[in-house]
Structures are given as structure tokens and as C-alpha cells.
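User: ok so my PI wants both of these folded by tonight, can you help

Assistant: No problem, let's get them done. Here's the first:
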Amino acid sequence: MLTITVIGLGQMGGNMALTLKAAGFTVTGSDVFEPARSRLAEQGLAVVTPEALPASDVYLLSLPTSAHVREVIEHSPGLLKLAPKGSVIVDTSTSDPVVSRKLAEKVIAAGLQWLDAPVSGGPKGAASGKLGMLLGGDTATIERVNPMLEAMSAKRTHVGGPGCGHVVKLANNYLCAAHLLTTAEAVAMATKAGVAPAACLAGINSGSGRSAVSEVNFPEWVLSERFDSGFTTGLMRKDLRLARDAAEQLNIPLGLLNAVVDAWHANANQPTDSDDFNHIATPILARATQAEEK
């Protein structure tokens, strides 16, 4: 069995750590925040401070941004110096592909192995071992950590070398963000025309306009008004900015991407960064109801 250190014990990292522990792996968790360490320790996970990381076969990172990933790898003193030769750094964060590729070069030059493995499925998927994973790295590295990946995920797609997983993750999140806007507008239009939102979604989901947003997000979180997916508006905004930056660096004009980025940043208070990301549909749907009342 691989020995695994999970760095970043938020909703995603904490649940992944517990899932791997339940699968029989030797797992240690670490986080800069003491409350996060205490919460996981209370659930039976061995935890350490960032200064006391153990020698492990795999260092699994679940962090907010590329800057945090770089900090863990390069500084204080960083995994480049702390990790045993041959160990694998797996970045499950949604990171900047440019940064990831530069870090991957340094990791490999230091005698370590790299795999970017951004995930989808939210905290629920992390807790159940049913995540989706996009893998960027060498086939041999994937084969080495495959038992861990199988315990964490229901679906794994190898999309290329280092950084490619993060490229495809940004493309996926761009489409998800766009679908939330377009589906909300379509449902709002139908509502204004006298069609119940659930009936409109049933029709859309029987045709070519369906998407994961219309099939899952709207009934699960929007129409139910639960808004507890575990993914925030702030994180989606960050991912959209990364997607726009990637397009600009490639000198690709993507007018619709820019429109989606602008729409998600149009009002910082509706929704706020801390709100569930599905809340982006709320003001669109509300406008249809308000128009009907007038």
C-alpha cells in the first residue's frame, strides 16, 4: 500500500484523506490551519503541522490556488527538499497550467514525479470515492499511483502530459459556468411564457440542449434552493480568470469566454464569492418572476 500525505484539509482534501484511509492506505493529513487539523484528527486521521511532514510515497495537494501549490512545493522549505527521491506529487487543485508546467519541470529535475489530477464531484464525491479526475502526467506515474486513484474516483481520464489536466479542467469549468448562465436564461424565458421550471428542464433534458447543469445542478441545487454543492462562486470566478488568461497567452480570441467571465464578475454582491456557485442563476430567474409580477 502507498503511504500518502494529504496537504490541504478543506472540504475536498479532508474528505479525500478520510476516503483513502478507509480504503486501507496509510494517510497523514496536514494543513496550515489548526482548526482543520483538529477537525480531521477528531475523525481519526493522523495529522501533522506543515513543518513536520513525514516521508511518503505520495503527496496529495488540495489547495485553493497555484500560489499555494507553489508555496508548498518550493518554500518553507518545500517538497522539493523534503520529499524522498522518487515520491509523487499529485496536485488535485484547479491550478494555472503555466505554473503547473514550470513546477512539474522542477519536481522532475529534483528526482520526484509529477501528476496533475484536478477533480470534479464536490465534497460528496470526495467522501464517497466517486470523483472525476483529469490526469496530466506520464503513464508510468499514473500506473504507480493507480490504486490510490481508483480508491478516490469513479472516472479517470488521462488527457496528456504535465499541465494538461489543468488545461482541460479550466475548459470544463468554463463550459459549466456558461451552462449555468444559458440554462438560467432558458428557464427564465420559459417561466415568463407560462411553463413551470421543472417542466422546462424535463423538456430540455430530453433534447439536445441538455447538459450536466440542466440534469444535475438545476434540480439538485437551484430549483431546490439548497445551494450546498460545496463549490463557491469565488472559486468559479478564479477558474474563469485562469481560463481567460490561458486564452490570452495562446493569443486565441474567445469572445464568448470573455462575455462569460464578465457576466460572472458583473456584481460582486449577487452572488458573493462565499455563496454557492449555483447562485449565479438566482438573479436571472428572479428577473423573470419580477417581470411576471409587473
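One down. Here's the second:
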Amino acid sequence: MSDFHQNGIITDFHNLTRRPLDALEAELVQFSRRRPMSLILPSLFTELEGPALANIVEELARVPYLSEVVIGLDRADREQFLHARRFFSRLPQHHRILWNDGPGLRGLDAELEAQGLAPQQPGKGRNVWYCAGYVQASGRSEVVALHDCDILTYDRSLLARLFYPVAHPYFNYEFCKGYYPRIADGRLNGRVSRLMVTPLLRALKQIHGPLPYLEYLDSYRYPLSGEFAMRSEVLDGIRIPADWGLEIGVLSEVHRNYSTKRLCQVDLADAYDHKHQPVSEQDASGGLNRMSLDIAKALYRKLATQGVTFSAEGFRTLKATYYRLALDLIEAYDHDAVMNGLSLDRHGEEQAVELFATNLLEAGSVFLDNPGERPFIPSWNRVRAAIPDLPARMAEVVERDNTGLG
């Protein structure tokens, strides 16, 4: 049961009464007549073989208000794509799979690359970007939601609560971000959000002052959650990173484009568990190691657009300030866990903080050494300006993939 406190500069939708799901869905069915809704599911093929996605699909099959489900499928060959078609065929809603590694979409990607418009690296951001372009081209919805495909505790009430603030015809919200407690198997999870993002934002405020952008990001209870909903037109004008900076990048773009009065967050669940990333201390290309690097770079780039100037000396100061704040937070989390009968590995938490502190400097070096880097995927507005018929041709490719191939 969450509290009713409005603790930041965006509206917070709480879960105060455990309102029955049937009541929420009945309203959403009514809302869908005015604001049709689509869901984006960015997925790796391996997630079709995991423990979470089969249950997610079973739950989605019972959702009565969805107009469309769009699945972005990464790392799949032809046989795996055909398996995915069979896997998702149980969905009664109109659904289409974007076979991102198929020849049709690869051909369009090469065309975008020739114009300097293609995503520069594979990843969740690239997957979501192509799905967003397809949703715009299909024209089936006015509200779009996105959530991950590895949620072990998924039930469809999460989706109903995620859609509600943006789908309600008398609310004026353009964007809604989900949050929840990261607790599973008696442990407190969510290390990157707890131990990196929160103390990093506070360190940046301590050094650079209470910038509106930093106050805004610090208003989100879980800025790294993979669940958000938005009006479909929001997808047109945002530029997002292709890497693990996706969530921070999306929050930054909606802040740039909309008043904070049009943005909100919602309590989605009492319990949330999904695939846990390893720390990967020895491998900067994977796990929380890579994630923390990408997130730090995304924050630095966005702050630079706000007029913040960085230097090597400034990054060293930031590392020291962050490190002290993060250690203080570990103690607070430890005490909170004890009171709630949860476990927390203080040694592992401090090791993670040491890695994150090192990566703040590494991300700073990358930022300073690559001033000409193009870190963000161009907006779909720009793509349509350069290649007006590409979204329509992408829709044709997706249709052929989903209805052909034998």
C-alpha cells in the first residue's frame, strides 16, 4: 500500500484502495473508443524461451481494450522468427512482430544508414525506436505503452494502471512512467537505481545547483523502470539513445518537449521481479557495468544541452561527491531492509558503488574525448522529412514478414 504524498514536480498516481481490476478495465474499454491503445514489447528471442514471457502473453490475451500489440524481436534467425509467430499467435488482438534481423528491415536499416539516420548500435533503444516508427505508420492507436518481456511477477493489472492516466479522456497527461518496489526472494534489488542514479543526481545537484532538469529526474521514484505510456504523437519528436541510456533518454526528451504538468508516474505493483543483470566487474560490455556507463553518458549529454560545462577536474569532484552520498544511502537501505525482514549484502553493495564511481570517471572521459559523437537516434519526424515513404514501406515489410515466409 503506497502513501498519498506528492513528492516532486510531476503528478504521482498512488495505489491507495486496491481498486478491482475489472473496474479499471471496464473504464479502459470505454476510453479506448476515444483513445485506442497499443502496446510495444521489445524482446530478445531468448526471452521466448525464458520463464516470464509465456505468462505475459497469457495475461495480455485477456486484456479487452488493446487495439494492437507490436513485438520488436531481436537476435532471431528465420526459423526463430517463425517460432515467434506461432508463440504470439495466441494473442487475440491485432499483433505484428518486427523481425529486426530479417532481410526486409535490414534493407531499410541500410537505407537509413546511407542517409546517416540509422541507429548506430544494436540494443533495446534501437528495438524500441523501430517499434515506435511502426506504431506511427500503422495508425491504430492514440496511446502507446511499453513494458519489458522478462517480468516474472506480471499480471495485467500492471498494464491497466500504466495506461489509465494517459488514456483517460479528461486527463491531459502526455506521458506516464511506472514505478514499483524492487523486492524478490527476500532481497532488496534495483541496485543501479538505488546506488547509482539517485546518489548521482544528488551529487550533480550539490555541484551544479538545483537545476530544473535534475529536480525533475529526482522526482521519479524509479527512473530506470522499463514501463511507460504516452500519447502516440510523443513518439514523433523524441531522440533516444540506442543503449542502456534509453529510460533516462526518454525522460529527458519528454521533459524537453512538454510541461511537467503533462507528465506523471504511477504505482504499478506491490511486487516486481525480472531478470537480474550480473555486475560484470571484469567486462565493461555487459551487465550492470555496461548499464552504468551508458546511463552516466546519457546524463552528461543531456546536462550539456542544459548549458552545464564539464571538465576532467569536475568529473573527479563528481566521483568523490557521489561516492560519499552513495555510501550513506547504503546504510539507510540496510536499516530499511532489516526493519522489513529483508536481506541486503552490504559488501556487494559497496563493491557495486565502487564500480559505479569508477564508471562515472570513465563515462566522463568518453564524453570529453568524443565531442563529435552522435549518441541519439534521430527522431521519426526527421526520418519522414528525409525519406517520406519509409514508414509506409516499413509497415509493408512487417506485413509481409507476418503473413508470408511459409
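The chain has a mean pLDDT of 92. Residues 44 and 84 are 10 Å apart (CA to CA). Good luck tonight!
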